[in-house]
Design brief:
The complex is a heterodimer of chains A (about 400) and B (about 120). Chain A is α/β, with parallel strands linked by helices. Chain A folds into two domains: about 1-30, no CATH class; about 35-50 and about 110-405, Metal-dependent hydrolases (TIM Barrel, Alpha-Beta Barrel), CATH 3.20.20.140. Chain A is about 40% helix and about 10% strand. Chain A is built from 17 helices and eight strands. Chain A has an eight-stranded parallel sheet with strand order 1-2-3-4-5-6-7-8. Chain B is mainly β. Chain B has a single domain, classed as Rieske [2Fe-2S] iron-sulphur domain (Rieske Iron-sulfur Protein), CATH 2.102.10.10. Helix content of chain B is about 0%, strand content about 50%. Chain B has no helices and nine strands. The chains are: A alpha/beta (about 400), B mainly beta (about 120). At the A-B interface, helix 2 of A face strand 2 of B.
Chain lengths: ~400, ~120
């Protein structure tokens, strides 16, 4: 097979191997001494669509299960019950791992393929524990059928818990919440909150439900009581009427991944959710960092003039934001001075958590944090692992689980 | 200065490339339109193996004389190699990062000795 004139360390397409692709990352791990401290990746992905036949087996509704299974034929990897997004993440073949992934071999045996592939890149990069999320299901929040969102996400959660998390001490997850149905959202927390490897819950941000709606308060209360964080994960949606005005994927991606989190963050803070649930930990994923000082300045400035419209607040909007956690990727390293100031205003040493987003096209290696000239060694280790260790109560301490040989 | 063997000339086809190693250094050598080019195989972004990515011609916008947009095309002249990690593109003739031409990969001299090609790894 020939797809492009590439030369992956003399690999043929059939021999594609993540360890070889990431050989330079492994070299970075050794050069920077990652064996000295743990690294936690709070936002990484697998392609759950490639395990869809297994996942569909976990559907309870016999009619929906028959429908989903039947529409998946003849290629079950493209289950048509799952809505998909228009988009070009692989840049027209410029990022070859998208096309080559299916050729990568994993050892036959006990380890589930997604887990085997994930641990392979974790070792190459030096990551000890990864918080694993799906990929196409990031768009499930705009599926036209709420009942499908509930059923499919529950099947996925059950599959992930039983097939992956139960067996892998280095893999954890914040499980999908079917946020378009507040009651199902609450039930999911009760059903899955104490499962092995579940360290919190996830709201895929691309959806049209306001986070301050009264129907969600019981879920926030339950999460707070259980000590489990809630996370918002950005993504794009080219069918959104505003994003539809953008004609290139670069524009949709750059703005879309921040857009929904901006909406949710605004509602979260201005409606005083942090005052109602002061111990509920909140994490914002895959929106980068540059938007945070914008939101802080924008809302502090308006709040000082329109205080009466946010009567629940007892301090500035930015002060609530400083209590939140921020995942680093995709970290905008284009102006070192701006990045340094951004890290200062968010108290990065305690509130920033490293995320790779691997294997997606804009992943960040740990070196994006470790090589920053303005961070102390303590700050680097906190951001790369210590903060997440405490946030998720992983009890890693100084343990190193990755094979950084 | 160390000269590192790249290939016999007859074995190095037009459009092909080699990755050669010297100590901890990796060098990508390209045979492109009758000329040999050699660059450090380390992306200026996050250190990816940039010389091992796909080679694609530059994408260009096509504008009419009245500045309206007509479409896109691939350049007939300019080709890029693309870092497989994140997509940083480099001009195969200069090693410049095409997103910001102030950034340029370290380049190396390619020597022909008889029927063989060498790169000067310094």
């Amino acid at each position: 097979m020939e797809i492009q004139p590439n030369d992956f360390r003399r690999m043929s397409v059939e021999e594609f191997d993540t360890t070889k692709l990431l050989a330079h990352a492994s070299k970075q791990s050794k050069e920077r001494g990652y064996e000295r401290f743990p690294i936690v990746d709070v936002d990484s992905h697998h392609y759950e669509n490639e395990s869809m036949p297994e996942i569909l087996e976990y559907l309870d509704d016999p009619v929906l299960k028959q429908l989903a299974t039947a529409t998946a034929r003849p290629n079950a990897k493209n289950a048509r019950i799952l809505n998909t997004m228009v988009g070009y993440q692989d840049m027209g073949g410029r990022i070859p791992r998208y096309g080559l992934r299916s050729f990568e071999k994993t050892p036959a045996g006990q380890t589930q393929r997604d887990a085997a592939l994930t641990k392979r890149w974790m070792d190459a990069v030096g990551v000890d524990v990864a918080v694993l999320f799906p990929t196409p299901m990031l768009a499930l929040g705009v599926h036209p059928q709420v009942e499908v969102e509930i059923a499919l996400s529950r099947a996925y959660n059950r599959w992930l818990c039983e097939k992956v998390l139960a067996h892998e001490k280095r893999l954890v997850s914040m499980l999908y919440l079917p946020f378009n149905d507040p009651d199902a959202t609450y039930q999911f927390v009760k059903e899955f909150g104490e499962k092995k490897g579940v360290v919190g819950f996830l709201i895929t941000s691309t959806r049209y439900r306001p986070v301050h709606a009264n129907q969600y308060m019981k879920t926030y209360a339950l999460l707070e009581e259980m000590g489990l964080p809630i996370a918002f994960h950005g993504s794009y949606h080219w069918h959104d009427q505003a994003q539809g005005m953008l004609n290139r994927f670069i524009s949709v991606h750059a703005l879309g991944f921040v857009w929904y989190n901006m909406i949710h963050l605004a509602n979260w803070v201005i409606n005083g959710i942090p005052e109602r649930f002061p111990k509920l930990k909140v994490i914002w994923l895959e929106s980068g960092l540059a938007w945070i000082p914008f939101m802080m300045q924008r809302f502090d400035n308006e709040y000082m003039m329109r205080t009466s419209e946010a009567p629940a607040l007892k301090k500035l909007p930015s002060d609530y934001m400083r209590d939140m956690y921020w995942a680093s990727q995709p970290m905008e390293i284009t102006d070192m001075g701006l990045l340094q100031e951004t890290m200062r205003v968010i108290n990065a040493e305690t509130q920033l958590v490293y995320s790779s987003d691997y294997p997606h096209w804009d992943f960040d290696l740990p070196s994006t944090i470790y090589d920053l000239p303005f961070l102390s060694e303590t700050a680097k280790r906190n951001i790369l692992g210590g903060n997440a260790d405490r946030l998720f109560n992983l009890k890693l301490g100084t343990k190193k689980l990755a094979n950084v040989a | 200065m160390p000269e590192v063997f790249v290939s016999r000339i007859d074995d190095f086809a037009e459009g092909d490339r080699r990755i050669v190693f010297h100590g901890g250094l990796e060098i990508g050598v390209f045979h492109w339109q009758g000329t040999y080019y050699a660059y450090e195989n380390q992306c200026l972004h996050q250190g990816g193996p940039c010389c091992e990515g796909v080679i694609m011609h530059k994408v260009e916008d096509v504008l009419a004389p009245d500045k309206t947009w007509l479409g896109q095309r691939f350049s007939a002249d300019e080709a890029h190699f693309v870092c497989p990690w994140h997509g940083y593109e480099y001009d195969i003739r200069t090693g410049e990062c095409v997103g910001n031409r102030k950034l340029r990969l370290k380049s190396f001299e390619v020597l022909r000795r008889g029927d063989d090609l060498y790169v000067v790894a310094s």
